[in-house]
């Protein structure tokens, strides 16, 4: 059996009275592999700065713990504001990131992709907006409550030579019509990526897995597979939008990791991590360990 490694991390934990204190410890992580296994995380970090203790200054400590806990090779975040992106970059010193505010520059939300720089070489990247004019920065034509977009990147795995894409998105929460059109556009653009190269799609889709038109479009013939349903092993299924409440088994999954091409899901989980009664976000992160094969660059 392949062994696991201990990696030193700093953690925020609950002390007496509910205060958060920094402690030192170790976590078990998977060692470097040559089989193409990639740890992928999708996480809506909540861009709204609520009142304490749900403010970002408090929550970012828990987010940092989650990142140390899962040590993602690829991370797609939703709702991140510019100051949050900076904090995430600080929490992930071995990662680079790709992103742009939905209204250009640092304005509004980021759909940033963070990647382990020692593991991945960036071959290409880009952005498009979920509208009738997808190449126009900040465009919104489908009745979106917010401007919606996709950030994507093409990577070469330095460990295996395999090439893969990641795309990251956040569909509209208010307009069902916008979500349907967005799913169609995403699938159309993904089909325009280099033929035969695997694609991982992370996001908050604001649609229920298995029971929504968006899911039907994105997991239809010739489209994506849901890594949750194809996983060899998985943790408990919780609703992924926790709304600051205790995890509920069997709830709706609106945050997904989808895969297209030669991708096998070894393990997937939804992590309802909390310290006392404090959650890192109103969403729970989704994590998948993927074995990616296919074309080498």
Tell me about this structure.
With 297 residues, the protein is α+β, with helices and mostly antiparallel strands. The chain has one domain: 4-Layer Sandwich (Deoxyribonuclease I, Chain A), CATH 3.60.10.10. Helices cover 17% and strands 35% of the residues. It has helices at 56-70, 82-91, 176-191, 213-218, 227-230, and strands at 5-14, 20-29, 37-44, 74-78, 95-98, 113-116, 120-129, 149-157, 163-170, 199-204, 225-226, 233-234, 255-260, 263-270, 274-275, 278-279, 286-292. The strands form four sheets. A seven-stranded mixed β-sheet has the order 5-6-4-3-17-14-12. A hairpin with a 5-residue loop joins strand 8 and strand 9 (163-170). Helix 1 (56-70) runs parallel beside helix 2 (82-91). The longest helix has 16 residues, at 176-191. The protein starts with a strand and ends in a 5-residue tail after the last strand. The model is unreliable at 1-33 (pLDDT under 50).
List the helices and strands and how they pair.
Layout: E1 5-14, E2 20-29, E3 37-44, H1 56-70, E4 74-78, H2 82-91, E5 95-98, E6 113-116, E7 120-129, E8 149-157, E9 163-170, H3 176-191, E10 199-204, H4 213-218, E11 225-226, H5 227-230, E12 233-234, E13 255-260, E14 263-270, E15 274-275, E16 278-279, E17 286-292
Parallel strand pairs: 3-4, 9-10, 12-14
Antiparallel strand pairs: 1-2, 3-17, 4-6, 5-6, 7-8, 8-9, 10-13, 11-13, 14-17, 15-16
Helix pairs in contact: 1-2
């Amino acid at each position: 059996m392949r062994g696991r490694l201990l990696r030193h991390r700093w953690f925020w934990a609950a002390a007496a009275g509910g205060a958060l204190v920094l402690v030192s410890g170790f976590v078990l992580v998977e060692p470097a592999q040559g089989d193409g296994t990639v740890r992928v995380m999708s996480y809506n970090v909540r861009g709204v700065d609520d009142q304490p203790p749900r403010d970002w200054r408090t929550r970012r400590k828990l987010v940092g713990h989650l990142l140390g806990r899962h040590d993602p090779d690829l991370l797609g975040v939703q709702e991140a504001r510019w100051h949050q992106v900076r904090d995430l970059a600080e929490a992930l010193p071995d990662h680079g990131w790709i992103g742009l505010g939905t209204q250009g520059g640092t304005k509004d939300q980021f759909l940033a992709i963070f990647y382990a720089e020692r593991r991945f070489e960036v071959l290409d990247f880009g952005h498009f907006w979920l509208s009738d004019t997808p190449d126009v920065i900040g465009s919104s034509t489908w009745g979106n409550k917010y401007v919606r977009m996709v950030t994507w990147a093409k990577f070469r795995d330095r460990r295996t030579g395999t090439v893969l894409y990641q795309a990251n998105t956040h569909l509209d929460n208010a307009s069902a019509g916008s979500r349907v059109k967005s799913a169609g556009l995403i699938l159309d653009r993904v089909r325009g990526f280099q033929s035969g190269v695997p694609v991982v799609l992370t996001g908050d889709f604001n649609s229920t897995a298995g029971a929504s038109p968006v899911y039907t479009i994105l997991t239809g013939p010739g489209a994506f597979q849901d890594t949750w349903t194809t996983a060899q092993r998985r943790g408990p299924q919780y609703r992924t939008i926790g709304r600051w409440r205790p995890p509920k088994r069997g709830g709706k999954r609106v945050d997904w990791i989808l895969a297209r091409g030669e991708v096998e899901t070894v393990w997937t989980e939804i992590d309802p991590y909390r310290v006392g009664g404090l959650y890192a976000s109103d969403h729970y992160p989704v994590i998948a360990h993927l074995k990616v094969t296919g074309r080498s660059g």
